[in-house]
Design goal:
- The protein is of the alpha/beta class.
- It has a single domain, classed as Dihydrofolate Reductase, subunit A (3-Layer(aba) Sandwich).
- Helices cover 27% and strands 33% of the residues.
- It has 5 helices and 10 strands.
- An 8-stranded mixed β-sheet has the order 5-4-3-6-1-7-10-9, with helices on both faces.
- The longest helix is centred in the middle third of the chain and has 12 residues.
- The two termini are 16 Å apart.
């Protein structure tokens, strides 16, 4: 059975983007990206909402002008399956991707039980649904040394979950990685 992992890059005050939707402060440097590549390697499938998919689909056709670490991330992303949950999208443009009209916790639970490789859920809205349904096994947060004041919160404000710290790592640029197990 696969683990469901919520991984996000966030500001220190808990947002994945600011109130205007900007997240340029979240771009990982080479040290952080090398670490991201290492933790993404075991992922077999990404679960995305529409907005996260529209951000990440760049990696399906990323150009050759990328750094070696960006090229590695591109290969990891392209090799994984993607499931996009959206009522507004009519189609998806990336390879190895299927579109589902809505997130169904029972179907996702059955999918996780059938998978050998871990599954990642991306985007705070979809992750919030998965957290509420008790499906998330781990939260992996990259906290950036910036506050943005308001925006799209990394975690639901109306949900209490207990977490157990499994790992932490500090990067030279001030980013801190925190890996938690969701206590069920």
């Amino acid at each position: 059975m696969a683990k469901l992992i919520y991984s996000a890059i966030a500001s220190l005050d808990g947002y994945v983007s600011d109130s205007t939707g900007n997240f340029d402060w979240a771009a990982p440097d080479e040290e952080v990206l090398a670490f991201v590549n290492d933790i993404e390697r075991p992922i077999g499938t990404y679960l995305y909402g529409r907005r996260m998919y529209e951000t990440m689909v760049f990696w399906d056709s990323a150009g050759a002008d990328l750094s070696p670490l960006e090229q590695e991330f591109t290969q990891l992303w392209q090799a994984a399956d993607k499931i996009v949950y959206s009522r507004s999208l009519e189609s998806v443009s990336s390879r190895r991707t299927r579109l589902e009209p809505e997130f169904d916790a029972g179907s996702v639970r059955a999918f996780l039980q059938s998978q050998e490789r871990d599954v990642s859920v991306g985007g705070p809205a979809l992750a919030g649904e998965a957290l509420r349904a008790g499906l998330v096994d781990e939260c992996q947060l990259f906290l950036n040394p910036v506050t943005v004041g308001d925006g799209n919160a990394v975690l639901p404000r109306d949900l209490r979950i207990e977490l157990e710290l499994l790992n932490q790592h500090r990067f030279a640029n001030g980013v801190v990685y925190l890996r938690y197990r969701v206590v069920k």
